[in-house]
Amino acid sequence: MRRAVGQAAVYGVVKADAYGHGAAAVALELERLGIDGLAVARTAELEELRRAGYGGRLLLLGGPESPEDLDRVIRWTTTPVLTRLGQLEAWRAWLRQSEAGAGPALEVVVELDTGMSRSGLDLSDWPAALDDLRAAPEYRLAGLMSHLVESELAASSFTEEQERRFTAAVGLLDSSERRSAPVHLANSSAALRRASARWTAVRVGGALYGLDLATLVDGSRMAGLRPVMSVKAPIVDVRRVPAGAGVGYGRTWRAPDPARIALVRVGYGDGFSTGFGGGEVLVGEERCPIVGQISMDSLTVDVTGVSNAAIGDECVLLGDQRDQRIGVGELAGRAGIAAYEVWCGLGLRLPRHMINRGNGASAARGPVRGQ
What we know:
The protein is α/β, with parallel strands linked by helices. The chain folds into two domains: 2-216, TIM Barrel (Alpha-Beta Barrel), CATH 3.20.20.10; 231-363, Beta Barrel (Lyase, Ornithine Decarboxylase, Chain A, domain 1). Helix content is 29%, strand content 25%. The protein has helices spanning 2-5, 15-20, 23-32, 43-52, 67-75, 86-97, 126-135, 157-170, 175-180, 188-193, 214-218, 328-335, 339-345; strands spanning 9-13, 37-40, 58-60, 79-82, 106-113, 121-122, 139-145, 183-184, 201-204, 231-241, 246-247, 253-254, 259-264, 280-283, 286-291, 299-302, 314-321, 324-326, 354-356, 361-363. Strands 1, 2, 3, 4, 5, 6, 7, 8 and 9 form a nine-stranded parallel beta sheet that branches.
């Protein structure tokens, strides 16, 4: 990412348990690698990272929604993101009621709605909000941001329009504010592909974990990106079934010929969705079909084409096996969901193993999934 974005600061998005990768472990590794800051979406997430030992800059997307949340933001040295004008007065009132409010000015990042229509200050409210922030001793402007709607599309006139709107808003900052307040518009795809959107910082989520959504749109590959999560499990049983035998609930799949069926103890209770049924896994460097319905605790695989498949052999549900790969886009396409939803859905019941291939270290950190 550093090579791709040049001088721009890099903020990593680690909300939703780092997109299902394990937020605490990911945050500590990113801090070791020199990330400029991290962003979360819930106060419980920021507390988790601080308790784990992450000491870098931390943004709370959407900001606190209660006095108690604001107390946590201040206690855990977090920068809230302002998304609507009314928050300024609400936070000011909460600060005045809180012992924590007697401390230094609260640093605030302002999010602008340049076209997402989801969150962010209306552009018409931005001048008034800026005047309020400048005049209020309780606050210090610590950044300006917005979010692109379709940055994964190479030719998007709306992305260009969002850039124009954001440029006009940035133009209201004075020279001192431009120097001290990071300005960020680019998400992963824009950070990698749109130099005009990088400003002084970028926010990257999927790219941190090896995915540029643009690759799912146009089939291209971004050099240097490699998925960091794999989901693997051993075969725990192999049995022969005769032609015509049904497999799984409802016998929705019947063996057209005598077959060998392997059992793998990963199911929808672990986040491996029933929507992935009818897809494939990797066994013995071969693609083998998932057959029958995926159960809560297990799935069944036709390994007839892998003559030596045996109990204990590795089954790859997501990731690589030599030259073969099951990608997150493949699973997402099968289920008709977003690629990020695949990662986020993988449950904590799956044991996790963190492997740092850079220095050869390998460590299990509690229930950790993938590698």
